[in-house]
Amino acid sequence: MSAGAVTGAVTGAVTVRVPAKVNVQLAVGAARPDGFHDLANVFLAVSLYDEVTVTPADALTVTCSGPDADQVPLDRTNLAARAAELLAARHGLDPAVHIHIAKNIPVAGGMAGGSADGAGALLACDLLWGLESTPAELLEICAELGSDVPFSLVGGAALGTGRGEQLAPLESGIFHWVFAVADGGLSTPAVFREFDRLAAEAGTDIPVPEASPRLLAALAAGDPDALAATVVNDLQGAALSLRPQLGRTLDAGLGAGALAALVSGSGPTTAFLVRDPESAAKVAEALAASGTCRTTRVATSPAPGATRH
Length: 309
Ligand code: C5P
Known about the structure:
Blueprint: E1 14-31, E2 37-56, E3 61-65, H1 79-90, E4 97-102, H2 113-128, H3 135-145, H4 149-154, E5 157-161, E6 166-169, E7 175-181, H5 188-202, H6 213-221, H7 224-228, E8 232-233, H8 236-242, H9 246-255, E9 260-263, E10 270-274, H10 277-290, E11 295-301, E12 307-308
Parallel strand pairs: 1-8, 3-4
Antiparallel strand pairs: 1-2, 1-12, 2-4, 2-5, 5-6, 7-10, 7-11, 9-10
Bound molecules: cytidine-5'-monophosphate (C5P).
């Protein structure tokens, strides 16, 4: 997060750029009494961004542009609108802003696009209104908005514990990624419910989630082969159970030379770790030609968190 020096409210518009994420380890514990699951969630921010612009207006409104704009809710369920409302309420303000989201992150895809818009709108409104909130204050509101929103604000590489909202920064070298965007989204609660159902069916104890020391060492070393050997997403079985055809996408990327293939978060976007930009182009081309996904994106990690643009 880089808010820059702020003195007083800004007139005109404020634009904040916010990254998507991929989870290289998503270890999921048993369901908690509050319905959430404890996680050991190794987040990497990737260089796919939404841009959130806030402008003073008569009332709170949201618009969205981009190829998947028609799938984005423009009412108060949009996390960007909720972020403006929460921040305004804390300061006794009227959230009278127009929020425009230039959307490039896949929608409902397991890449925290909605969370990115929440974090982006929060930082943009804080700058527009000259509130100068501390990072801790912003992170608290982010956690209220959703489990992935704090990470969207800070970006980089981090371990998320609790329900994913308690962050500790991690060291990470640069990695290259291809993402295959599926048709339609998957509901995160539905994927967690399927995880619970599959676990109950298997009848085995669910271990307490813990970060893998080997994976953290591979990240810090920037070693793609070592990272490929350790990536793991406990939600993958549930996402594949709900969307079996994702297995063909994973196979297509591996067949084209990806070092590792996994479902991104709760899916249905799939993520492919590749050695270098040349391999990324080759894997992206093969995935597009395979007919097993709607579109592909190439990105690198880590990427900076929410940043004024
Ligand atoms: O926190 P967020 O609003 O993104 O969570 C959406 C849903 O995903 C929750 O209502 C819950 O069903 C599920 N979830 C979970 N455990 C987590 C994070 C999310 O069960 N750690």
